[in-house]
Amino acid sequence: MTISELRKKFLSGEYTPKEAVADAKSVIAEKDKNIHAYLDVFDDAEKMAEEATSRYQEGGENIPPLCGVPLAIKNNILIEGKRATAASKILDNYVATYDATVIKRLRDAGAIFVGSTNLDEFAMGSSTENSAYGPTKNPIDPSRVPGGSSGGSAAAVAMGSVPAALGTDTGGSIRQPASYCGLVGLKPTYGAVSRYGLMAMGSSLDQAGTLTNSVEDAETLFKVISGRDPHDMTTIGPDTYGAVATKETYTFGVPRAFLGQGVDADVMERFEAHLDQLRADGHKIVDIELPLFEAGLAAYYIVMPAEVSSNLARYDGIRYGVRKEGENLLETYLNSRADGFGAEAKRRILLGTYVLSSGYFDAYYGKAEALRSKMRDELNAVFTQVDLVVTPTAPTPAFKLGEKSDPLAMYREDIFTVPVNLTGVPAISLPMGEVDREGISLPTGVQYIAPHGGEARLFDIGRKIYDAKRYNNG
Amino acid sequence: MTKEEILHLGTLSRMRLSDAEAEKLKGEIDSILDYIGQVNELVDDGHLEKKVGLVHNVFRDDEVTNEPGSYSGALTAAFPEREGNYLKVKKILNPDS
């Protein structure tokens, strides 16, 4: 099911928003006990669906583009009056007091929110196993993870409850779950989409984006949620970066040395087959060097925890959230945060506190930021030779729940996605064909990376290849 | 990294850590620090300057953009403990110390 198909049916009257929401709810009732994509399911969706159904019945022009479309929203994005937990115990009782800008824009476009989705606590993880409310399972193989941190959003779409969901992506948290669940995942240019009302994790890296069943839907949603916002001064306009042209055929850059890093053999085969298909369609494939990208993950695990330790300082049980009283104020802080945060949040807060501490600041944070700046230069230079950079989205298909207990092993799943956040460029993950694991076909993903502001190019090439099913059957 | 250092980082970041947690974190943080240390080899000390691209400070006029009081009810309702419209917290100054 796609948004564009729904829209056609709503307009023709063959299907109504009321039916769509009822169907979404029955899929959730049937499947979510096992999958656990949702943290909360909203009971006001039916009322919104009724209004949307009337809107179509009235007919006429100017029915908003997402009128009556049911969506699921990652639970680190604020929806007024709804619980916003970020899958953390410390916010278990927190109810959002305002709509995030992305929510307001979706609401204005007529979308209906059917529920909030599970995530790794404060979006920190690559499997959705770090949720305080228990993991989400991959609908394709429930013994495996859906990826993370937007695993609930990916599973909500993959299990067929909604045509699309919002996620957030700080180091791959939209693209990697899209890859594991066989979806289209878009991480926009940093600043393209407002972060107002998103719970900050790594403020210089975070972007909201979409998980969809088609490239066209990703574009439809992106047009609605993107644009300048007076509430987020880092948002960009259409002219901030120069126009990134669309073309008949593109030149793709493949960072060969970078891809040597632990990609499963059959994922690599799918990737080579994908490149062959691109060549066959008249695109040009060239090898490129991105030596600093190989160190991207190391820089990321300095910059991100540093920002995490600052951003999560606000959760202290004083003004909102869960408070665990102690003898005095300091004890109250110590207790609330000890009880409220899970293991991964604690690990990153400590790491961030360490790399920002006096004496280590220059050696870690200073150097990581300098490296990041050099990475941006390196990538900009590459974009003078090629139109797009292409990599697998993740080195493996979905792994088993509990398989990666070593934090560093988990972090490595994001090796190809984090450089994109560090440099602020947009990227999209598209299905790249399937690989077999224990007799089950699991999806893999290909990542296309465009220059800053190049979403239109991603949608263009995405449409060209996504509609051509031969790219996916491999 | 010693266990004491981990516990100290915990205090700095206002998180109580159990001995068992600190012990486990010690090994994990050590291996992560070992991994991220590679940035040191890629950027020498003479090249710490960075360009921040198009990111720069953006200012707006210091104006109130919402109706006064429009969020007060919802925000005070979120207080973990309250007395009337006051947020209740533990004493900060202890007369005994």
From TrEMBL, chain A:
Catalytic activities: L-glutamyl-tRNA(Gln) + L-glutamine + ATP + H2O = L-glutaminyl-tRNA(Gln) + L-glutamate + ADP + phosphate + H(+)
Q: Return the broad EC class.
A: ligase
EC numbers for this chain: 6.3.5.7
A biological process from GO: translation
What subunit structure does UniProt give? Heterotrimer of A, B and C subunits.
This entry carries the following GO cellular component terms, namely:
glutamyl-tRNA(Gln) amidotransferase complex
Q: Specify residue ranges for compositional bias: Low complexity.
A: 142-152
Does the UniProt entry include the keyword Ligase?
yes
A GO molecular-function term, please? ATP binding
**What protein name applies here?**
Glutamyl-tRNA(Gln) amidotransferase subunit A
- Gene3D superfamilies under this entry? Amidase signature (AS) domain (3.90.1300.10)
Q: What does this protein do?
A: Allows the formation of correctly charged Gln-tRNA(Gln) through the transamidation of misacylated Glu-tRNA(Gln) in organisms which lack glutaminyl-tRNA synthetase. The reaction takes place in the presence of glutamine and ATP through an activated gamma-phospho-Glu-tRNA(Gln).
- Where are the catalytic residues? K74 (charge relay system), S149 (charge relay system), S173 (acyl-ester intermediate)
Keywords, A to Z? Answer: ATP-binding, Ligase, Nucleotide-binding, Protein biosynthesis
The UniProt annotation puts the region (Disordered) at 130-152
Q: Which family does it belong to?
A: Belongs to the amidase family. GatA subfamily.
Q: Describe the location of the Amidase domain by residue ranges.
A: 26-458
Q: Quick check: keyword Nucleotide-binding in the entry?
A: yes
From TrEMBL, chain B:
Q: Which residues form a coiled coil?
A: none
What Pfam families does the database record attribute to this sequence?
GatC (PF02686)
Q: What is this protein called?
A: Aspartyl/glutamyl-tRNA(Asn/Gln) amidotransferase subunit C
Q: Sorted alphabetically, which SUPFAM superfamilies does this protein's record hold?
A: Glu-tRNAGln amidotransferase C subunit
NCBIfam families in the record:
gatC (TIGR00135)
- One of the GO biological process terms: regulation of translational fidelity
Cross-referenced InterPro entries: Asp/Glu-ADT_sf_sub_c (IPR036113), GatC (IPR003837)
